[in-house]
User: Fold this.
Amino acid sequence: MAILIDGKATAVRLNQESQRIVVALKDKFGVAPALAVVLVGQDPASQVYVRNKILQAEQAGIRSIEKRFDANLDTDALMEVIEGLNDDSAINGILVQLPLPAHIDAPKIIAGIAAHKDVDGFHITNTGRLMSGEGRPLMPCTPQGCVILAKEHLGNNLSGKHAVVLGRSNIVGKPLAIMLLQEHCTVTIAHSRTADLEGVCRSADMLFVAVGRPQMVKGSWIKPGATVIDVGINRISVGEHSSRLVGDVDFDSALEVAGAITPVPGGVGPMTIACLLRNTLVAACDQHDIDGREVGL
Ligand code: GUN
Assistant:
């Protein structure tokens, strides 16, 4: 029976740490970190995510500014909003909630965010820095959360382990693979076209799953004792009138085989916002030329 990796508890701890860092930033340097969250349209899941981001920022003492717009806002108008936030020295982090409505040029908007305020870590300057290992990138939040949880369970040292990342998105799979490489893992990126996908997954010491397909990875795909980090959040119907959240891993069968596994909900999910808040503090320090270590970062 696998150990459960409690992402919620780790996120609470990280958020408490962020709260202490905010106090130190204010006391020592007179800096009050602020995050701007931009939401276009009425997507229900995005509304929930944005509400949680704002709520948790406030709880950590980070000022948050919410900018909401109708779905019919166009690319140029959104770009003007972003430019205004870029130019506002009181704003340290800018997050544009994705997905944007289809008529908006999302890559152009992401490229328009000042790289030093890009707390999502999606700007090409930050992805380039992550890839090359040069400079100090703001790194994507969900992959950061995955690495923290794996390290917490495996004792901070992932060196030499075979990590299989199932999924190759720009938001999770690709940056996660690079971060694991920096942790000295041997990394395989697997995806829907991978030959013998089950066998590849079964060769993993650590299996990270981010495919967006409910309960796809079965217990038989997992090496006994492996660490399984499930990034999926899928709502499935149960009977006619109710639904529940499940991951990309079939939790019940995986629990029998894995050494440790993240639950859904309560695994990777809460870590994403915790890492977003941390990124906001990293950005605030950089923008004020503060060495993060002076405030406990
Ligand atoms: N939509 C789903 N995940 C994310 C994320 O990490 N950041 C943003 N901005 N939007 C998302």
In short: The longest strand covers residues 34-40.
